[in-house]
Specification:
Elements (H helix, E strand, L loop, with lengths): L1 H18 L8 H21 L28 H16 L3 H28 L3 H6 L10
Helix pairs in contact: 1-4, 2-3, 3-4
């Protein structure tokens, strides 16, 4: 149930950002930021293999721990990608409501990844070691 609540909040917040302004930034800087986020998300999906991708934080039976691609550095590159893309569109067409939704998205994804990491630690013996050598979302910061 917790997984569905977290995903529901995530979708609600992304939906708000999507319908409250343009989905493609106008400024070249924010377009570049969007493209970086999209590329990171695509790279993460390719590294994980699309069949293993799930929006839910639950660990599927038979799941394997992905340690290649962006996962060598960032434990949650798809969350990073989502945050980068949405931040770019929010800052390019700024409003307090959109920025508040983005801040709530950041908070929701932090809750979701904390829960997901608990599940991954319980499922994969090597996850604790992996956590010690990688960053959660932003390399060299968090």
């Amino acid at each position: 149930m917790k997984s569905y609540i977290l995903v529901g909040l995530q979708l609600l917040l992304v939906g708000h950002i999507a319908i409250s302004g343009p989905l493609w930034a106008e400024s070249l800087f924010f377009q570049s930021l969007e493209l970086i986020g999209i590329a990171l998300g695509g790279w993460a999906i390719l590294a994980m293999k699309i069949a293993n991708v799930s929006i839910l934080p639950d660990v599927r039976s038979g799941a394997t721990l992905t340690l290649r691609g962006p996962y060598r550095i960032i434990r949650h590159p798809m969350y990073t990608a989502l945050l980068v893309v949405t931040l770019a569109v929010v800052l390019d067409d700024f409003s307090l409501a959109r920025f508040s939704a983005w801040c709530l998205l950041l908070f929701t994804l932090t809750l979701k990844l904390t829960y997901e990491e608990k599940l991954l630690t319980e499922h994969f013996e090597e996850y604790a070691s992996y956590r010690s050598r990688t960053w959660r979302i932003i390399p060299f910061v968090y």
